[in-house]
Amino acid sequence: MGELVEFIVRSRNFILFLLLEVICFYFIINTNNYWSASFFNTSNAYAAQMLTWSNSVQAYTRLRDVNAELAAENRKLHEELTRLQQGHPVAPTAYQADTVFANRFAYKVAKVTNNTTQYANNYITIDKGTDDGIQPGMGVISPTGVVGRVKLCSANFSVVTSILHSEFRVSSKLIRAADIGTAKWDGVDPHQMKLLDISRYKPVYKGDSVVTSEHNSVFPPGILVGRVRTIGVQPNMTFHDITIDLSTNFSNLSFVYVVNNKLRQEQEQLEKQIENEK
C-alpha cells in the first residue's frame, strides 16, 4: 500500500495531466456536435471490428465441435442411403431385399489419431476400440470413399490397414462398363492405384467411377474408390492396364466411419464351409 501511495505522489503531475486531458476530451465531445458525431462513428467502427474479431475467434474454437457434429450427421445419412440402396436397387429387377438384409450395415464415427502414407504398407490409428463395438475385419470409409479395414483393436483404439497397403485389395466395379475387378495399390503414388482383372475387350472410359462391388462382405456396394485416370493395354495381355485417381485424400484424413456388416460373420462362415468341402 505504501508503494502505491509513493508511486501516486511521485507521478502526481503526470496523473493530473491525464485527468485534465480526459475532462477536456469529455467537454469537447459533449459541447460540439461535429466532434460528438465523429467520436460516436469512430467508436462504433472500432467496436464492430472488435466484435467481428471476437466472433471469428469463437467460431474457430468451435470448429472441432462443428466437425464432430457434421461427422455424426453424415453417419446417419450413410446408414439411410445404404438402407435405401439395398432395399431398392438402381438396376431394374424384380428382386427386393428383405428388411434384415437392407439394414445389415451400421456405421460408427471415429477420429483419425495417426496416419502414414509414405511406406509400402501404411496404417491408420483411430480413437475407437472394442469398448465402442469395433472389431477386426470391419471396413472403414471416409466421406469421400474407401479408407481401409480394421486390423487390430484395443479398448479405446484401433489400427486400420490402409488401402495404401501392398496386400490390401477390394472388389470394385466400373459404373459405365459394369465390369468387376480388383483395386490394388502399387506402392508408388498415394493418390493413385491400379484396377486389375478388367477384360481388354470391355470398353473402359476415362473418368469412369470405380465403386465397391457387391462381391464383398466388408463394404457396402457403391462406395466410391476412385475414377479412371489412364487406360492401357499391354501386348499379349488379357486385361486392361488401368490407373485410377483415389477419391480419398489420405494426407488430410480427419473423421472416418467404421462399417459393421451385421451379417458378415454368418456369410463368411457359410462360405468357409464350402471351401473346406472342396
Automatic annotation (TrEMBL):
One example of a Gene Ontology biological process annotation: regulation of cell shape
Spans through the membrane: 12-29
GO-annotated cellular components: plasma membrane
Coiled-coil ranges from the UniProt annotation: 60-87
Domain Rod shape-determining protein MreC beta-barrel core: 112-259
InterPro entries referenced in this protein's UniProt entry, alphabetically: Cell/Rod_1 (IPR042177), Cell/Rod_MreC_2 (IPR042175), MreC (IPR007221), MreC_beta-barrel_core (IPR055342)
UniProt KW keywords: Cell shape, Coiled coil, Membrane, Transmembrane, Transmembrane helix
PANTHER family: CELL SHAPE-DETERMINING PROTEIN MREC
Family to which the UniProt record says this protein belongs: Belongs to the MreC family.
Name of the protein in question: Cell shape-determining protein MreC
